Amino acid sequence: MTSLSASRDFEPAADLSRRLRLPFSNLELLTRALTHRSYVNENPNAMDDNERLEFLGDAVLDFIVGAWVYHRFPEMPEGDLTKMRSAIVRNDQLADFARHLNLGAALRLGRGELASGGRQRNGLLGSAFEALIGALYLDSGLGAVEAYVQPLLEHAREAILNKVHDPKSQLQEWAQAQKFGAPRYKTIATTGPDHAREFDVQVEIGGQVVGQGHGRNKHAAEHFAAKHALETLGIE
Fold this sequence. Notes:
CATH architecture of the largest domain: Orthogonal Bundle
Structural class: mainly alpha
């Protein structure tokens, strides 16, 4: 891993370009992709922040991921293709891609964002990854973006498939999309001897019980509670 310069608190764009094997012809684009608005606010001589590149990268990723899912899973029905694409372009997954690339080390952040742990925050990392994609698209075209993103998608494929078919993840995605916040799981009963405990769990959304499950451990009980909730809500 490239160490940070003694005179800076971020990895320079040129170093990042070499480390990620992304030979940008226009390093100013890459620098802008790494520049958060908090840095611009504290450094009047800095170039623009990365928000416009984030917008562009979001659109480019949506197309590339949609095409990858379509070709990678030729037997998958349309509804599952949509779920798969949505799971990949969610901010937390994009933040995982950014962590895989150690993109946080190169972010240009204001002092407040640095002090509050901005380099590890999902929101900033996911946005920075989108901005990186937008910058790469402008610098080298769609083919270069596809060539760079597809290995990341293959690396995360199994984890994303598990997430798509995991009822707890599906329920959480639905609840947050409906502005209810994250589901809450509550153990309502524990039965059996110490060596063979069984659990009953309820799941609540917006203060309402929407599902209940039984299992030999809390994880299994929550799994079945989420599955019951999906059936009750007609989401599956």
